[in-house]
Each structure stands twice: as C-alpha cells, then as structure tokens.
Amino acid sequence: MTDRIYTVLFVCTGNSARSILAEALMNQMGRGRIRAYSAGSTPKGEVNPFTLHALAKLGLPTTGYRSKGWEEFATPEAPALDFVFTVCDKAAGEVCPVWPGQPVTAHWGMPDPAAVEGSDDAKRKAFLDASYLLKRRIDLLLALPHDSLDRMSLQNAVRDIGQQ
C-alpha cells in the first residue's frame, strides 16, 4: 500500500457484533493506513456486550463504538469508501445503498456469534472465533499488493478472501 489512507466499511444487519469486531480489528491492524467503519441495515441500537468482551480479550479499545445505520455512509458528505464488506448473509442479500466513491465490494459472510445459544462461555468463544476469522481475512487483505493490482483483480482478490 502507498501512503494513501484507505477507507473501509463493514456492513451487517444489526451492527452490534461482526461488523463492530471487523471495524476494531481493521483500525488496529491497518496501523493508520486504513480507516474502518461499520454500519447495519437495521441497527440494534447498542453494541453486543460479548463484542466488547472479545475486543478486551484481544487488547483492543472497547469504547467509541455504536450501532448505526448504513445510510450515514450513503450521503454526499460521507467519506468516500474504497472497500465495502458485508459480513453477514442477511445484509449481503439486501439492496444496499449506492456507496460514494464506487468502492470495491465483497461478501465475507460468517456465522453470527450473537445467535449462539447456551452458556456465557459458549457465547464468549463464538465471539472470539468470529474475531479470529475476521483477523485472518484482514491479514490477507492487508497483504495484497494494492498498488499493483487493477480494479478487477483487486475485486476478485477480496471476494476470494471471503471464500477462504
């Protein structure tokens, strides 16, 4: 990557678990080269407490996150997006807004840790498992030679990451 700062949006339905985890991980792993955001099609209005627990276990900040709608990122004054990733199957099937900046898009679907039933230990494990999968995908994205790939190659590469 060049000195350019890339902008990434992670989208899920409720914006309380997977997309928040991805936002936090990308902001930390991108080391200032990437500014990540998250949003939902029908936001829950609050961040899942197990999301915050997973972030704490990973040594990431646990404050400053909020469950918000994706319409915030589809306005003329919104940041131009370089990448948009859906991280849940429900959001991937919805009609998304037209994103400013014509970003590269991909579906990085994964199981919903918030849907896990059972003990709090089982739920904490599900959120950590989701975090590890997102971390792996973000590692692969960050390793891509962005500057030497044409748009179509980059589009294919980010879609492939979601299939791994």
Structure description:
The chain is α/β, with parallel strands linked by helices and 164 residues long. It has a single domain (6-163), classed as 3-Layer(aba) Sandwich (Rossmann fold). The chain has helices spanning 18-29, 49-57, 89-92, 120-143, 151-163; strands at residues 6-12, 34-40, 83-86, 104-107. It has a 4-stranded parallel beta sheet with strand order 2-1-3-4. Helix 1 (18-29) runs parallel beside helix 2, helix 1 (18-29) packs across helix 4 (120-143) and helix 2 (49-57) packs across helix 4. It is globular and about 45 Å long. It starts with 5 loop residues before the first strand and ends with a helix.
Determine the strand fraction and express it as a percent band.
Answer: 5-15%
| SSE order | EHEHEHEHH
Query: What strand order characterises the main sheet?
Result: 2-1-3-4
Number of domain modules: 1
Blueprint (SSEs and pairs):
Layout: E1 6-12, H1 18-29, E2 34-40, H2 49-57, E3 83-86, H3 89-92, E4 104-107, H4 120-143, H5 151-163
Parallel strand pairs: 1-2, 1-3, 3-4
Helix pairs in contact: 1-2, 1-4, 2-4
